[in-house]
Each structure stands twice: as structure tokens, then as C-alpha cells.
Amino acid sequence: MADNTVDEKAAFEAIKVPSQSNKVYNRECVFSFQNPYSPGGLYVNLKTFQGVGPDFLPLDQKRNRFPIYLHQQWKRKAKKDAEEDKPTNAPTKFAIGVEGGFQLDDQKIDIIKINTVVVVGPDGKKQKSYPFDGSDKVLPKNVVQSVNSVLARTDSTESKDIFAGSLEEEVKESKFAKDLVQLDNGKKIPNDHEKWACEDSGLKKNLWLNLSTGYIGSGRKETGGTEAAIKHYEDTGRKYPLVVKLGTITPEKVEIYSYAENAMVSDALIDKHLAHWGLDRKKLFQTDKDMTQLSIEAQSKAFEASLITGEGEKQEVATGVGYQGLVNFGNTCYLNSTFQLLFSVPEFKKRYVEFASRVFERSPSDPAADITTQLSKLATALNSDKYQGETDEHKKLKEDTKLPELSDPAAEVKPKMLKKAVARDHWEFSGGRQQDAQEYILHVFQAISRDAKQFPSTPGNSDLTKLFEFASEEKTVDAQSKQVGYKIQPGQTFLQVPIPKPQQSTSKKEEDPEAAQKESGEPKEKKSKTASSSSSATVAAGAKMETVEYEACFKRMLEAYTLQGYTSPVTQQKGVAYRSSRMRTFPQYLFIQMLRFEQVDMTKEGKGYQIQKIRRMANMPVELDIKMLASTGLQKGETALPKAKKAKPQAKPEIVVAVTSMGFSQNAGIRAALATQNAGAEQAVNWVLMHSQDADINDPIQDGDDDDEEEEVDAGKVSQVAAMGFNQKHAIKALKATDGDVARAIDWLFSRAGQLDDDSSSEQKKKKIEPGQNTDSPKYKIMGFISHIGMLSN
């Protein structure tokens, strides 16, 4: 029989206060989403300071063999003094839990916390408990100090930017504010909102005052204006960029926009600048919706949102195994949607659910920071109905607080530990800002792939990212010789598909809208002077979007683009080539990224080139056949471009000697000399110091493949990319893939950081794919989609 005896005295004496370097997980189980609100509460091991649910006490005893825990049990009840009849104001700023923002439900709720110190036997069963009130009357002083510290500490997975606080972008001081030009034209604006009107259309709402000229014009079309304000800015030579929104000026705030800076800004001298036109903030109050309110309404009523969420359609709430929702804990919709989608893939379910118990048993000392553990934790939750029930106690709380949508924290799944584990080497994903789902998927895949290689003995170990990989076949037509080259680009994860403008018909109605109105018998809407001359091409939120068939999207993807400055392997002269791409292999699961952003020329507005979201719908069928994208290889009548060979670069001996004299190997010296284009000893030494931890730093230089299509790559550009921490081989590859664009090459490398070495691995070389006909099955069935709601492009 197993001995369940606990040496309580020795265990108490061993307890210490957690230091700042100790991670404390006091709000959630490291193996499940059990928390202090859950039935049975949360147990925090007072040696490891890791929280576990009651179901995981036996496992924690097996792993850590320490018997003393802080047991936290929290319950909620309605506040007795809650102001039941107090109206709930609409949010006035993008913020959570602060005045003017979205209010937290807990402001109507009291939390009752019961803390006890318990002794747990080796079998995971509770043997004894001590009520904890913060004093040392019952428990030793060191235990009380430790427990008080654990209770006071913020959970190591929490981040300040996740909860209460503003979600708005920081508003910076305008560079035009300090020396703002204000014309002395005798104009005065009354401190009476009823006397304000757009000088172009007569509109009484959505008015903007130009702080330099005193002109009052209405705002942009998508907010109900005629764009008179921006038209005035353009007509006056774009010399007067600052405007303030009338109707939102109050003693507490004022909204200022800079056309030149293309952003909301602040003005430290705003009172002086308003007084120039006779306006006194102390006499004004809000009479119009401010920009944040308009943005909130636009986000909640946007046409895209209704399409994505099925607003207006009859819907059924899906519950049960496989239908567990995830809580957004601070702009984490990109994360939640990514993992909901990935765990709908059978292989992901099998890898992270079936092997979960064995993964937990072999987790490292800090399970919260282990990617495989946290993936198994989330997968188990998503594929169960454990967190979907509603207790009678919670139903009563909703009734008492008059909060019918109140969530139950015991039934919330927030993958905070997984977020932190995945983002530990990527600072952008560790914060609380919105992120791009495609970039996040690539980063998650990098982490999964790396974890699979570093820990091959993990139960059920498999690099599941390979299920999504495919190879593309690049075709290059040399315009000078008319000969054709084919090249394979392996390791692709996303099929990037453009959304072109739909082909316009040339019917009489479309050519002459006024004629169409006359024909329909509908009255023609009166237009302001600026209606037809405005340069803005923005479509109002809620307007009907153009629809593009998916075949047109794929057809555009197949179109060739022009390569300027291409050196012909035949003539050895620079000229033009045409490049297109098809799929050499079809993966088991295919990620399609619809390119919903485009670069727009706004130089006439003084804004240069801007990235804008495409407001077009691409119809995607449930079942998709992409055989049109299959590669063909060299076709009858085509002549293959000759295989170009380049002389192998040679490292300068004196540079290699300079590096080896620093204690580095001969191969490291050669790599440093070649990576810096033999620029000199100092540059080579600096390079090798930066790359001393590279896995291949001491490996011999390998000759490139002879059959690689070799257009020239500018050595200076290679150095620029390599200076960002990439090796020369990767820099050259990226520059070739992006037609020599340094900025795009750097982005290309960052987005493929986890796949770069895979491309040159021995496994890849053994299974080298050659150009040719793609014979894989081209048929797919949609499993899910991720879509960004809103107009923001960043």
C-alpha cells in the first residue's frame, strides 16, 4: 500500500516567499481553464507557485511532491447598494473599465473570496485545511507571508494592456499647432450650435472648423457629410491642415484632425486658436456625435459585419463538444479565430487531445510557458463541453444584477498562457494590439515546427505544419530570347489571391447615371458643389459592395507580371522578363489568403500612397476545384533557358585570418568574408560576432544548385538585408523572391523565419521537387474562415 503520510512540519518550514524572479500562476490552472470561480476552486502549490484544478492535484503531486497549497474559492453576488435604475450611457471612447468606455460587469457585483491553506497527500487527496485570514495565529509566519505575497501578486500571464484601459491609438501633438497660421479676416463663430452650418451645403451636423481660415465645412461622405471641409483644404493649396469638429467641443475635450498628417492630433494651444474665432470652450457642450461614437457605430453596423456574423438571419446557438467559444481578452480575435480554425483539423485534434494526458505528465518545470502543453490544454477545452454549462447560482446572479448577457468566469476559456508561450520571441504578439491573423498563423507554425524538432520524444510528436505546405512553380519568360525558365519555390503556406475589380459593363444606365434616374422615374437627389468634385473614393459604410467571382480572382493570380532589369542568360544583356506562378503541389489542407488591401495613389490629396482595405466581396464556394492553378512544366514548343552558372565567390585570405585570430573557425571566417562581400576585416568580425550562434556558422560553404535560375542580385542590397540579422543565403533568396525590393525582402524573411532552414535541410534535398505537371488532387471543401471586420488597414 502506498504511503500517504505527509511531514507537515517540514513542509511548512520549507515554504518561502516568492521572489520577483518567481513566476506566480494564481488565477488559472496550468493544465486546464479551472480558476478560483470554478467548482472546487484553484490550488496554488506553495513551492512552485503554479495553480492547478482539483482534477490535476494527483498529477501535481507526482510532478512536484510538495504537499502544501493555497486553496482559492471565489463566488459572486449582486451588490446590495447597486443603483438599479441608473441609466447605462453609450460608450464614448474605445476603452474598457474606465469612465466613458465599455463598463465591466463586475461594477455591479461583489466577489466573496475564501482562502484556505491545505495539506494534500501523495495521492492528490486533501488531508487537512487551515482557514486563512492573513494573520499568523494559526499558521507559521513564513507561510502567512508566502500566502499574502501569492495573493497580492499579479498572475504571470496577465498583461496591463489586456484589461482596463484605452484601445484607441495614441493622439500626438500636431507639428503645425505651435506655429499655426490664423488669418485675420474678421470672421467670428458664435458660441451657439444652432447658428453653425456648412458653408457649402447648409448641413447642420458633422461640421468641421478650419482653425486657420475660419471656414466651416461638413465631413466625409462615410460619416454623412459632403466633404466640403477637405475640399476647402485642397482649394486653399493644402496650406491650412488643422480642423476641429464643431459640436464635440467641450471644456473637457476637443477633436482635432490634421489633413497633412492624416491623423487625429492634439493642440496644446487649442484654447487660443479657438478664441481667435470667438469660440470659448467653457460655453460649449456636445451636440454632435464625436469620432469615437461614429467609429463604434460603424464597426457595429458595418456591412462586412452583417455578412460575417449572419446578422438578420435566423441562427441557432451551437453547443456541445467541438463548439466551445473563446473569450476575447484584449484584441485577441486574431488569436482566438486562428486556434478555433486549427483545432477543427482532425490531425490537430488527434495530436493535442488524444496525447494530452501524456503531454501533461512530461511537461517541463514551467508548463505555462511550454507551447505543446498549452496547445494540448486549449485543444482539450475546445473538444469538450466542460465549460459550457450554466449553474442555477449564475442564473440567479444574472437576474439580480439585471445583466442577461453576464458571462460566467467559471465557464470562460481565455488562452492567456498559450498567447504568452507563443509570443515569447515576438514582441508584437505579446502586446494587446490588433494583429494580422495570417502573420500570426505563420508565427504559430514556426513555434510548432521548432517545438517538434527540439523535443522529438514528446508523446504524439509530429510537425503538423507540413500538412499545409505546398510548392509553387515559377515560370519566367525571357523577352529577349523568348526562352522559358521554370523554378520551384518549396515551403509555401498561404495561397495569396488578389481580389480584382469586377468587369464593368457599358450599359447606357451605367454610362449615364442621370439617364438611368430619368428612366426609373425617381427624383434626382440634390447635390452640393463638392459632391462630384471630391477626390475621395471611400464607399460609405453599409453601401452595397461589389462582388467578384472566385474564378476571376484566380485568373488574376495567374497573370504574369513584368521584371525590369532582368539579365538574360542567353544574351547576357539586361532587359525585360515576364513571371507567373502556379502550384506544383497541392497540400492536404490549403490556406487561401484573399488580399484585401491595396496601395492607392493619393498624391493629389497630399497623402502619397496609402494602404486601404478593398471593399469587394469574393464569392467562395463551399467546394472548390483549383485545377486551373496546377503547374504544367515545360510545354511543347517552349525552349528551356540554359542553366546559368556563376563563379563561386572566394573569401579574401587576410579577412579569414582576421576572423580566425579571434578564436573562430576557418569556415566561420570564410562565411563572414563572403557575407560582407569581402568589405574588410572589421566588417567581417562584426558579422561573425552577430552570427556566432547560427547553427551553420562552422559548416563548409555549399555550392548553390546549378539549375537555379540566376538573375543578378545587387550585392549592396544583400548587405542591407543581411544587416538585419539574416545570413547571405537567405538574403539572396528573399531578394530574388521580391524582385530586389529590400523592404519587401526583409518582410518576406520575417514572415518565413521558421521555414528558411527547412528549405535547405537534408530531408528537403532528398525529396527535391522538380518542375513539371501537378497530378495532386485539386479539390477542397471549406472548413472555416477568418475575416477582419472594419476599415483599418494596420
Describe, in plain words, how this protein is organized in 3D:
- With 794 residues, the chain is of the alpha+beta class.
- Strands 8-13-12-11-9-10 form a 6-stranded mixed β-sheet, with helices on one face. Strands 2-1-3-5-6 form a 5-stranded antiparallel β-sheet.
- Helix 19 crosses helix 21 (681-690) and helix 22 (715-722) crosses helix 24 (742-751).
- It is globular and about 85 Å long.
- The two termini are 63 Å apart.
Identify the notable features of this structure and list them briefly.
single chain; 794 residues; alpha+beta; 6-stranded mixed beta sheet; 5-stranded antiparallel beta sheet; 26 helices
**Widest beta sheet: strand line-up:** 8-13-12-11-9-10
Q: How many strand elements?
A: 25
Q: What overall geometry do the principal axes of the alpha carbons give?
A: globular
Q: What's the gyration radius in Å?
A: 32 Å
Largest sheet: 6 strands, mixed
Helix content: 25-40%
Question: Please, what is the average pLDDT?
Answer: 81
SSE map:
Layout: H1 8-14, E1 42-45, E2 51-52, H2 57-64, E3 68-78, E4 95-96, E5 109-120, E6 126-131, H3 141-152, E7 165-166, E8 172-173, E9 207-210, E10 216-218, H4 228-235, E11 242-245, E12 256-258, E13 263-266, H5 270-275, H6 291-301, H7 303-309, H8 333-342, H9 346-354, H10 356-361, H11 371-382, H12 392-401, H13 416-422, H14 427-430, H15 437-454, E14 470-478, E15 484-492, E16 494-498, H16 508-511, H17 513-520, E17 546-549, H18 550-558, E18 561-567, E19 574-583, E20 591-595, E21 597-601, E22 609-613, E23 616-619, E24 623-625, H19 653-660, H20 666-675, H21 681-690, H22 715-722, H23 728-737, H24 742-751, H25 756-759, H26 762-766, E25 779-781
Parallel strand pairs: 8-13, 16-20, 17-23
Antiparallel strand pairs: 1-2, 1-3, 3-5, 4-7, 5-6, 9-10, 9-11, 11-12, 12-13, 14-15, 14-19, 18-19, 21-22, 24-25
